Amino acid sequence: MPATSGTTRGRVHVREPRIPLAVVDAPTQRFYAAAAFFGVQAWKWMRLVAVHWFHAPRARGMMQFFEPTSFFVVLLLDFSLCYALHWLAIPPRATGTPASAVAPPQQAARTLRRPWTAWHYVGLFLILAAADAIVLLPYDDALAWVPAVLPGPAVWSVGERRVRLDHIVRPRAHISGQHTIHIVPYGTAHFAPATTCMCLGENVREVHIPVVFNQTVPASLTYSITDPVSGHKSVHTIKHPKTSAQTRARAPGTEAQEPDVPRGAHVLSLAERKRARQAAKQRASDMPVETVHDLRITHTGILQLESVVDRQANEALVGPETVTLVECPRASFVHGASDYCMGEEALVEVMLHGTPPLSLEYELLRGSEPRKQIQHQHTLLHHSPHMPATIALGLPLPGTQTVRLKRVRDACGNAAALQDAYDVQVHAQAQVHFDPMQCVPGRPLKLLRTSPGLDVRVQLQQAGPSDAWDVQVVHRPDGNATTTWKTLAPGGGRSRQVVWTLERGMHTKRLDQTGLYTIEGLSSQFCAGQVGSPWTCEVVDVPLPRASIHFESIEDPCAGTVGVKALSDLEGEPPFRLVYETQRAGQAPRRHERVVRDQTRDELEFWPNMEGLVTYRFLELNDANYQHVPLDGPSFTQIAHPLASASFVGANSDQDAVVSSCGEPTVQADVAFSGTGPYSLEYSTRGGAGGEPVYWHVDNIEEARTTLNLTLPPNHQGRATVSLLRLRDGKGCERRLATRDLRVDVRRPNAAVGFARQHAVVQEHTYADLPLRLKGTPPWFISYTLDHGRENGTATLHDANEALRVSEPGSYTITGVRDAHCAGSVLPQQETAEVVMRPRPHAFFVDTTQPNGLKSGVVRLPPVCVSTPYTATIALQGQPPVEVKYQQTTLADSGTTLTRGNTLSSSEPNASVPLKTNVPGWFSYNIVSISDAFYPHTAAAAPALLEYRVWPRPDAKFVHDEPQRITACVGGTWERRPILHLFGTPPFQVDMVLRPVHIEGQAVPTRFAQTVHESTWHVMPPTVMSVPGTWELRVERVQDAHCVNEAATASVLVDVVESAGVVPVTNRMHYCVGERMDFVLQGMSPWTVEYTFLGRTSHVTARKAEFWRLADRPGVLSVLGAAHGSNTCRKTHAPIERIVHALPSAHVSAGANLVESLREGGHAEIVFTLEGEPPFSFTYQRTEPADTHARPKVLETHTVNQWQANEYRVPTSQEGTWSVVWMQDRWCQVSLGEVSGPASWSASHESV
């Protein structure tokens, strides 16, 4: 049974391997995968070390894109390896079962180790990427450890690089290439198609016909195509056809009998796996290998192979096979009618092309995408490719029926899959009717004359797909309606027919004429429909509402015309709403509305309250159907003489007017009059319960509102009542009054006021509440003055414990009080209160340079040196604790500006502030805000600024060049004078000491001082150093114009040395790449050797009395000399020159491994390319073919001496492989088996 991708519960989930275990077993897959992984990693690291450490040449051409020497390429390589291991899904090694045991699949599955998941491979890739990043970013530092761990010593070359000899001298790079010749028999070529008849068409643009070659490598291929109709033959030739190798198929019955064994079915031992691999290799070697060219043809006809010629112009034997290429079969619909009604028959035509007879397979489907269902499948045989074939369809149901073409096949057996489909739409009948909720027989629709029309709903119902239907509607006008507005059709009252085009669903149509609308018929482009109920809809005309209005005056026997009444007759549908307006002479009109609900007649009375000209006008009418129908009047104008009237001001229909007497015999009350003056008024007063009324009379009242002094009844208590009785107007008309009375509360005044506290303190921008003592009935109205009349004010108070709120300091005096009823008095000794303003806090810096020590503006302190303790004093005024926020600004000499805020809180009148002196520059302290126990933080009223200067301490520093140590010769000659750079303000006073550190002998320190007026000083000690060794020149003290630095640390080391030199070990002049050049050093260690190579000057430090370099490239080495330290105290002599020559090279076939096949009796030529300086000598061999023998035997060996040309040719007709094993030019030699080095010529050649 095949292995499954997963296991049951409790087993390890293992993916199926990409390579079946029947092909390659699991241990072998693991072995090859591990070998490939570690082999690629080893190759990658070898190239990294060779290129980035030993400076080997990089690959060129297309191979430079695959060179693993850039970070991107190595990441891509590591990712490809990890993904390939994950993709192969090689099964893990089994545990718990011996290798030779055979376990059931279930037990084998349980003994499998847990396989690696994708996260394991991601972790492996991240580890490799991290190692690549460490090595490649950057190269020089990352690869510094590589030479230390590689085998073999790493030495210095003339290019000052760490190199190894086996990396410099690589014989395989100088001796390369092989030329292999095989003697082969004549070859054959023939077609090997899958079938002898093939087709070309729109979907098959070309066919691929394999051409099989045996024992030949084709250089050209010629074939012909013959038209079977005209007999025309065209010949085509392909130069250098591309071929690929293939193994000839086994004969029937000889296939491998090994089944596809599932994973875990059996476990093979190591010996069994080895024998299986050897058997598989033997079977593969027994299979004959052929080469195949994929011939691509794009034209029809009869194809035949004409000739095949190899690279040596030898013709192969071609087979007689032919291949017939015809037109591929195809089919397409002939489009015609696609819409039908149910019950009709549809004829679908299909045009067929190809080699007859043609077989067409198609199927019938019903429904629409994506739920089409196959109903039938059919096959149609057609013999006339130029005539269309017909498919008949029955249409019993509505919807979509589809004919889909599946496949067409010609007489040769060529088949083409088809995807064409032809849809036939089968339409069903529809039904149409008016909306039954809207068009009801006997209930016509109302069409208003002010509307653009009436919207009527029409519903169309249809099964299946939705189509467009034409609805025939007949309009018959209403003959009984008036013909003044939209009632007659354009035909003069005759019926007319309209057509509505609708689709399935509910639709809205606008009717703008009265009459009867009837649906007569329904039809579409394909079928006829049905008319449902209701099929009629009646529309009637609704006239505008009208009003007939006339006016009648209302007369009074004394006053005359006092009003008017309007009588209205209304036509329309109630309820009605009449809109009218009234306008007095000289005033704007006032609009009113009158609603009449369930009647058509109405009476409206107007009673004006002022005498004069009044106009009444009706404007518009509304009913249940129409709104805002304008009325052209009528209007009525009259001069009204209203009856006179009087009432107390403040009284209304619900309550009387009320006043208080406050103990007085009279009270005042306002009376409002209407009518024609002057007026005469009669009123009565009555005191208490059961008191008798007293009548009073007032004449000649001219104003419409008058204040009357009303006399109260004598000896009354509690409450009195005043009633208005009669009124006579200017016309002499008298009327009784029934207005509301005036109630008079009789009470004694008791209002009083005084300050409860006569002193208060107020802060700026705040309020002070002065508590009051109040008596009486709220509210109270008090008046007061500030500072004896400088300002006056009033206040209204509603609570007896309320306070008077003030914001300004001064003396407040109460001048009067009144409660809700009567005026009161001010309490004695409590009429005045004092309000004092609390002062704000203040802070400023104390100027110690002034005589009085105080200054509120800018304070400038004396300058100070950096890191010197410094303080300042701030004077504080206010209620403790006083808090000061100040801002510290530092403008350093370096150009940076730093601003920092600080807070200081103190209860003392003077506070000390520590000042910053950490960096040189200008410092300023600015007081920003101040607060105390009462006032919050507010900005300082006056500027308070402190400034001072901090000078930097002087310093000294030696200017160090490369090298940082200074060399001096014994006796006083200095390589260069040390340069001391001074920092500060000149002039400077510098104290220095020159003391021995490590010398060969005895010496004492020397101290000296110097005044310097510049910032740079070239120091020259006054003492001559006569003892070699190491000395130190140190600065002990520096002083400038402002400050002193007692802790200067500038120093420089001076190496006092003797003279040095260099001599060669041998007088040999010429060397080869890979040789060592030795020299001897004279003097005392250490030395600095100076030499030039290829235009580059190098200075090398040596601590031993020998100096040598390895020649890693050709050029001229010039040793200029040696010195102690940095080229000082040296002996002068002529440069010592040595010439380095490049190793020669010999390449067979331009360095490539060329394999050439010769027919029996043919000839070939072996080409040797020599590089270097002639004359040349080289040795070459002919061995057994290297591509077919693992260890080829040497058949012959030849040596060529004193050859002056750069190319050597050897003609041959023998089989074998030619290669070079040794060669030399004038100076050097290279050998594959021995050590390369100088040439082995006689002494005469060396001296040339």
Overall form? flat
Q: Let me know the largest β-sheet.
A: 7 strands, mixed
Separation of termini? 83 Å
Radius of gyration, taken over Cα atoms and rounded to an integer in Å: 63 Å
Number of helical segments with 4 or more residues: 10
The counted number of beta strands is 94
Mean pLDDT: 81
What does the model show?
The protein has 1248 residues and is mainly β. It contains 10 helices and 94 strands. The strands form 21 sheets. Strands 4, 87, 89, 90, 92, 93 and 94 form a 7-stranded mixed beta sheet that branches. α1 runs antiparallel to α2 and α2 runs antiparallel to α4 (118-136). It is flat and about 175 Å long. The relative contact order is 0.06. Mean pLDDT is 81; it is low at 1-12, 95-112, 139-151, 251-266, 481-492 and 1243-1248.
List key phrases describing it.
disordered N terminus; disordered C terminus; mainly beta; 1248 residues; flat; seven-stranded mixed β-sheet; 9% helix
Question: In terms of topology, how is this protein built?
Answer:
Elements: H1 26-52, H2 71-88, H3 105-110, H4 118-136, H5 139-142, H6 146-149, E1 155-156, E2 162-163, H7 165-168, H8 171-174, E3 175-176, E4 178-184, E5 188-191, E6 197-200, E7 207-214, E8 218-226, E9 233-239, E10 243-247, H9 270-286, E11 289-297, E12 301-310, E13 317-318, E14 322-327, E15 330-334, E16 339-341, E17 345-353, E18 358-366, E19 373-382, E20 389-394, E21 399-409, E22 415-417, E23 421-427, E24 430-434, E25 445-448, E26 454-462, E27 469-476, E28 496-502, E29 505-511, E30 515-524, E31 530-531, E32 536-542, E33 546-556, E34 560-571, E35 576-584, E36 590-596, E37 601-606, E38 612-622, E39 629-630, E40 635-640, E41 645-648, E42 657-660, E43 666-674, E44 679-687, E45 694-701, E46 705-711, E47 719-728, E48 734-736, E49 742-745, E50 752-755, E51 759-762, E52 768-775, E53 780-786, E54 791-797, E55 803-806, E56 810-818, E57 825-826, E58 832-837, E59 842-845, E60 858-860, E61 864-865, E62 871-877, E63 882-892, E64 897-906, E65 910-914, E66 921-931, E67 938-939, E68 945-951, E69 955-958, E70 966-969, E71 979-983, ...
Parallel strand pairs: 3-86, 4-87, 5-13, 6-14, 16-23, 24-31, 25-32, 42-49, 50-57, 51-58, 60-68, 61-68, 70-77, 79-85
Antiparallel strand pairs: 1-2, 4-92, 5-7, 7-11, 8-9, 8-12, 10-11, 12-14, 15-17, 17-20, 18-19, 18-21, 21-22, 21-23, 24-26, 26-29, 27-28, 27-30, 30-32, 33-34, 34-37, 35-36, 35-38, 38-39, 38-40, 41-43, 43-46, 44-45, 44-47, 47-48, 47-49, 50-52, 52-55, 53-54, 53-56, 56-58, 59-62, 62-65, 63-64, 63-66, ...
Helix pairs in contact: 1-2, 2-4
